[in-house]
Design a protein that fits this description.
The complex is a heterodimer.
Chain A: H1 2-44, H2 56-77, H3 79-108, H4 120-129, H5 131-165, H6 167-180, H7 189-195, H8 199-224, H9 228-236, H10 241-278, H11 283-293, H12 297-325
Helix pairs in contact in A: 1-2, 1-3, 2-3, 4-12, 5-6, 5-8, 5-10, 5-11, 7-8, 8-10, 9-10, 10-11, 10-12, 11-12
Chain B: E1 9-19, E2 25-36, E3 41-45, H1 52-60, E4 67-72, E5 75-76, E6 84-87, H2 99-109, H3 117-126, H4 142-154, E7 160-164, H5 172-189, E8 192-196, H6 200-206, E9 209-214, E10 219-225, H7 237-255
Parallel strand pairs in B: 3-8, 3-9, 6-7, 7-8
Antiparallel strand pairs in B: 1-2, 1-4, 4-5, 9-10
Helix pairs in contact in B: 2-4, 6-7
The structure holds adenosine-5'-diphosphate and magnesium ion (MG).
Residues 18, 20, 28, 48-54 of chain B line the site of adenosine-5'-diphosphate.
């Protein structure tokens, strides 16, 4: 009787794993199927929008189809890779489904007005026709952003520590911070553009300002909130003032400092684009503005895609740094 | 060369006042005078709020007496110094440092870490934490954390070791183990120990002098000297007598208190 039971249980188990396996395989092949339909739709349905197609979209879909089939085959061979891919596959399929719907709504049925809503082919073509310019603009923007961000973050760390640690500094700088700080950095654009010799320097200043405020606030609050007992322990162990600041106050405030750094990253993106749209004659913000001037909305969309990739990449980078520095929080606080 | 480690403490008319929330003066500790020989083990016992922590904090240099002075080897205590190490009731480990880094904190702060690297490992081993060097405080049990907080003070080789109910939060078994460890270290290092405790048994078992404090204001009620050469055991004949005597005193100290302070 008992052994019978056990058999049934293991039968169920085998059934279960079999079932999981088939759903996994179905998930894994889903992207290829969707891409296949997207290609069919693109090639078979006649165009209603009167625009020339470039074939770039078609080529991208073809390449994706081959890739998705290749990846599917690898997934069947490599179990670990397969598990990761089958997990992601439905989402990837959804992305191509979105592309197909976009293609239908624009190129095929012309439901959305031109030039504001071009089809995917038009947008993807920009990466071919304007790729070099986009890359240059992206590099230019990254350079500006990083200069401004690093400068603002360092200053923020410095003033934040000063205010958080020294009461007299808080007395003099604190009110300034609380009154001037909340003004969005972009509001300073007109003044910055005349106050600095070049628009590049003006933009660096604006971005730095945008980062400086949240980093300062979060650093000083972080330091204010450090448990007094940590300082007492450090003092009785023989730590001097310098030790208390750099080895106790700042590390203890680090989680709060990182919140400031993340907030500053958001404000710096906004300021970067605004500064480039209004003053600087290069970069992605400028490119968006310029394309809009020519009513080339496909370029605007292409640029938005580049921006999205760039910004999310930078946020990922900051998360990486945070995980390195705040490794001790692992299992303690979930972000 | 023999390490000349003294650690004689003398308290001269210590008086400590605080301003309470209503702005009234309030005496936490009054007329506290006594001398403590180098290398002795003194326990402070008394109802809560009688100023035991305040006294330790003044020795550590975290608080200053309103009047009177405390001398360590004839020098007036001013400010904190690694010679007077304080183990707090809570472990208060730095959560961003691992066990080894926490233990090394004092050495690093005093810029003597390089030449004392081995000491860090020695002390970690002494309290049975080898293998946990890389663990972070939140991964430790209460007893382990308290051991770390003890050795991070010991690694500094203080002349005076101040223990503010360091075992209060531990379970009975861990507590007994730690008591043995503390006694072992005390004997080895000839350090002067001042232990604040709620536990009469602990005081009787560990110390050679017991100071009973009364509350509001905190004053010395009685000083009990134990035979220094006695063999420490938890059930020697005098133990129970002594314990009863102290408990009676403590009871007296708290019933006299009309405000009804809870122990
Ligand atoms: N910083 C402070 N400000 C005001 N009152 C304090 C302060 N520290 C301690 N006290 C008061 O002094 C008294 C003695 O405190 P404490 O030394 O912590 O007592 P014990 O450790 O014996 O329980 C208590 O009544 C406490 O409220
Ligand atoms: Mg206390």
């Amino acid at each position: 009787m008992a052994s019978n039971n056990r058999e049934t249980i293991s039968d169920i188990k085998i059934n279960k794993t079999n079932k999981a396996k088939t759903t996994g395989i179905i998930k894994g092949i889903l992207p290829a199927v969707i891409i296949f339909f997207a290609i069919a739709e693109h090639l078979l349905i006649p165009n209603k929008q009167v625009v020339s197609t470039t074939g770039v979209y078609n080529k991208v879909l073809m390449a994706s189809l081959i890739l998705s089939i290749a990846v599917f085959i690898i997934s069947l061979i490599n179990k670990k890779f397969g598990k990761a891919y089958f997990y992601k596959a439905p989402f990837i399929a959804a992305v191509f489904l979105f592309l197909a719907i976009w293609d239908v709504v624009t190129l095929k049925l012309s439901l959305l007005p031109l030039p504001f809503f071009p089809g995917p082919d038009k947008v993807l073509h920009v990466f071919v026709s304007d790729g070099a310019i986009l890359l240059k603009c992206a590099l230019y923007s990254v350079r500006l952003l990083l200069c401004g961000y690093l400068l603002g973050a360092s200053f923020g760390l410095f003033t934040g520590t000063l205010i958080g640690w020294n009461q007299r500094a808080d007395y003099w700088i604190g009110p300034l911070l609380r009154i001037i700080g909340p003004i969005p950095a972009t509001a300073w654009i007109p003044i910055a553009l005349v106050a600095f010799p070049t628009s590049f320097l003006a933009s660096i200043f604006l971005i730095a300002l945008a980062v400086w405020f949240p980093v300062t606030v979060m650093t000083s609050t972080g330091i204010h909130n450090v448990q007094n007992s940590y300082f007492e322990v450090a003092k009785t162990l023989g730590g001097n003032q310098k030790f208390l600041v750099f080895k106790v106050a700042i590390p203890a405030a680090m989680p709060s400092i990182f919140i400031g750094l993340f907030m500053g990253m958001g404000t710096s993106f906004a300021t970067l684009i605004a500064a480039e749209m209004l003053g600087v004659k290069a970069g992605l913000g400028w490119y968006i503005n310029w394309s809009q001037g020519w009513a080339e909305y496909n370029k605007v969309y292409a640029c938005l895609i580049v921006l999205a990739l760039m910004f999310s990449g930078l946020i990922k980078l900051l998360f990486f740094v945070k995980d390195k520095l705040l490794g001790w929080q692992k299992g303690l606080i979930k972000w | 060369m023999v390490d000349e480690r003294k650690g004689a403490l003398s308290f001269r008319n210590i008086h400590k006042e605080f301003i309470d929330n209503d702005g009234n003066k309030f005496v936490a500790l009054d007329d506290f005078s006594m001398d403590i020989q180098p290398g002795s083990f003194v326990s402070l016992i008394g109802p809560s709020g009688c100023g035991k922590s305040t006294l330790l904090r003044m020795i550590a240099g975290l608080d200053t007496p309103t009047s009177g002075e405390i001398l360590l080897d004839n020098d007036k205590i001013e400010g904190t110094n690694h010679e007077r190490g304080l183990v707090f009731q809570q472990a208060n480990l730095f959560p961003w440092l691992n066990v080894r880094e926490n233990v090394a904190t004092g050495l690093i702060a005093r810029k003597v870490y390089k030449e004392n690297k081995d000491e860090v490992d020695k002390y970690i081993k002494l309290v049975g934490l080898s293998g946990f060097e890389k663990s972070y405080p939140h991964q430790l049990s209460g007893g382990m954390a308290q051991r770390v907080s003890l050795v991070r003070v010991l690694v500094n080789k203080p002349k005076v070791l101040l223990l503010d109910e360091p075992l209060g939060a531990l379970d009975a078994f861990t507590r007994m183990n730690m008591q043995e460890e503390i006694l072992k270290i005390w004997k080895e290092q000839k350090v002067t120990v001042i232990l604040v405790t709620h536990d009469v048994d602990e005081a009787v078992y560990m110390s050679d002098t017991i100071v009973i404090l009364s509350s509001r204001p905190g004053r010395i009620q009685e000083v009990i000297k134990l035979r220094q050469d006695r063999t420490r055991s938890r059930n020697y004949p005098d133990f129970v007598d002594l314990r009863t005597r102290i408990l009676e005193k403590l009871n007296f100290a708290s019933t006299e208190d009309t405000t009804g302070y809870v122990i």
